[in-house]
Design a protein that fits this description.
Layout lengths: L2 E6 L6 H11 L4 E6 L11 H11 L6 E5 L4 H7 L4 E6 L2 H17 L4 E6 L9 H9 L10 H8 L2
Parallel strand pairs: 1-2, 1-4, 2-3, 4-5
The structure holds coenzyme A (COA).
């Protein structure tokens, strides 16, 4: 069974991520969505909340499995028979960041590959940090994240 994974911090998940999940889910029998730690980022929502948000926001996608792991992505993939990473690209800046990540992952396990899906233009300005910033000033995040995620953040 061909398995892929969309890894990320998802702090929080946005419409940009959901769009990538919907398109990536058609490429694999099973698509894992994995909450991993980015050591350079300070958490906004805890991992349990991020998982809850991802599970609710991806209910409509049948072959998605939401997981979390506190370790190397490459090791998680090996242990779970996952061969392909899917990441979204918004811009050239994303490409440079993603290129170095993809090569770093291959340096750990050389059989692991990454494919990229171009972000839809209407989502290209969305990032989790923009959501966090607007939310921290009680601004309206309803156009950036699914309703269940906005509800969770507004209720914090
Ligand atoms: N697709 C992907 N990201 C999108 C997006 C889209 N369509 N649209 C917007 N983005 C944004 C995200 O919202 C996020 O914004 P932010 O930086 O403001 O928070 C940013 O692009 C990318 O973040 P995210 O997708 O959450 O990933 P990340 O780069 O923070 O996480 C990990 C990278 C978690 C996958 C990586 O650190 C990892 O694998 N960690 C585990 C440890 C490990 O193996 N490290 C070695 C990795 S080489």
């Amino acid at each position: 069974m061909k398995r892929g994974i969309c890894p990320g911090s998802f702090d929080p998940v946005t419409w940009g991520h959901i769009d990538i999940f919907e398109r990536a889910s058609a490429m694999f029998a099973e698509l894992y969505v994995g909450v991993f730690s980015n050591v350079r980022k300070k958490p906004f929502l805890n991992v349990e909340k991020r998982i809850e948000a991802l599970e609710k926001a991806t209910e409509h996608i049948e072959n998605i499995k939401v997981v979390s792991f506190d370790g190397l992505l490459a090791d998680y993939m090996r242990a779970n028979d996952i061969s392909m990473i899917v990441r979204g690209l918004r811009s050239v800046t994303d490409f440079e960041y993603e290129q170095s990540n993809a090569n770093a992952i291959r340096s750990v396990h050389s059989d692991l590959d990454t494919v990229f899906l171009l972000c839809r233009p209407e989502y290209s300005y969305i990032s989790s940090s923009v959501v966090r910033e607007i939310a921290s000033f009680n601004g309206d995040i309803s156009k950036l994240v699914p309703p269940c995620v906005a509800e969770m953040i507004n209720g914090r």
